[in-house]
Amino acid sequence: MPDFPAPTVGRFAPSPTGAMHLGNARTALLAWLHSRALGGRHLLRFEDLDTGRVRPWAFGVTRRDLEWLGLDWDAEYVQSQRLDVYADALARLTAAGETYPCTCTRREIAQAIQESAGAPHGTEPVYPGLCRTHPPDPGRPAARRWRVPDQTVCVRDAFTGETLCQHLPTEVGDFVLRRNDGVYAYHLAVVVDDAATGVTDVVRGLDLWTATPRQVALQRALGFLTPRYLHVPLMTDFRGERLAKRGGAPPVQALREEGEEAGRVLATLARSLGWEVPETVTARELLPLWRRTLEEAGWSLSSQS
Ligand code: GLU
């Protein structure tokens, strides 16, 4: 097993932008199983910085869904209550000359990408660094971008065993740390919070795997330890399509309110992972299955409780 100071601290970090569907619930289950299988603490963190997308009712519904499934937590954090912590981190990077204001519009950025000689790398557009050298337009609100170091950052996933390397300037680009409407960016908040709350193990969906090298780079710039990353597959429907909120995946709340048994929902989630379980199970009963999954992924848990 990779070395990291015990005890384990894990977290589930939902964005309260809607109802928790079965796919989210499976990630929540795995994050909980991991923290508890290693005898660690488990945190719940609401990632609610993008206020325009937040649905106030989603906090309470998510808590009730988790409780219903038996996924408890030791402490709760709400990002919108921690703005000063992100402001401090941004101020540190700015004091070190690592950030710059940017007033480019999406259209200007798209145009610059089109005009730049280099073919686009990867699948996402890479900010071409327009404002690195141009002064911002004083008439427009400015975002704050991170001047990414000229480095290739490699991360190894402790679950899949995969390694991902990204050359920051060409594959990621100078990314936004605070948007021009004052909202702190997810990448900054996630890195600051995981470090501030002592998270040692990040269990989350595979959709965030390609964002990991830039988060590790930011950790290094801020002098934080890098947690272990375990990216777990996203739940797909029978057609192999990802269960998205808009795609009609059943919200946990609906199942709960229709009188469905939590144990049967947990059994469905467990079976979707290929685990053989009875018709109904408790989250605790799944702990040995997660331990076995970790061992199959190369972890040695003999010394863990
Ligand atoms: N809030 C993010 C989401 O719901 C998860 C962030 C993370 O786990 O790092 O997709």
What would you say about this model in short?
The chain is an alpha/beta fold and 305 residues long.
Number of continuous helical runs:
11
Largest beta sheet: what is the strand line-up? 1-2-3
Mean pLDDT: 92
CATH class of the domain at 9-81 and 199-205 and 237-296: Alpha Beta
Q: What percent of residues adopt helix (DSSP H or I)? A: 25-40%
Specify Rg, calculated over alpha carbons. 20 Å
Describe the main β-sheet briefly.
3 strands, parallel
Shape label? globular
* Spans where pLDDT lies below 50 across 5 or more residues: none
| Ligands bound to this protein structure | glutamic acid
CATH-defined topology of the domain at 9-81 and 199-205 and 237-296: Rossmann fold
How many DSSP-defined strands? 10
CATH superfamily of the domain at 9-81 and 199-205 and 237-296: HUPs
Amino-to-carboxy terminus distance: 14 Å
Succession of helices and strands: EHEHEHEHHEEEHEHEHEHHH
Which structural class fits the helix and strand makeup? alpha/beta
CATH architecture heading of the domain at 9-81 and 199-205 and 237-296: 3-Layer(aba) Sandwich
Description:
With 305 residues, the protein is an alpha/beta fold. The chain has a domain of 140 residues: Rossmann fold. The protein contains eleven helices and ten strands. The longest helix is centred in the first third of the chain and has 16 residues. The protein is globular, with a radius of gyration of 20 Å. 37% of the residues are buried. Bound molecules: glutamic acid. The site of glutamic acid (GLU) has 7 residues, from loops.
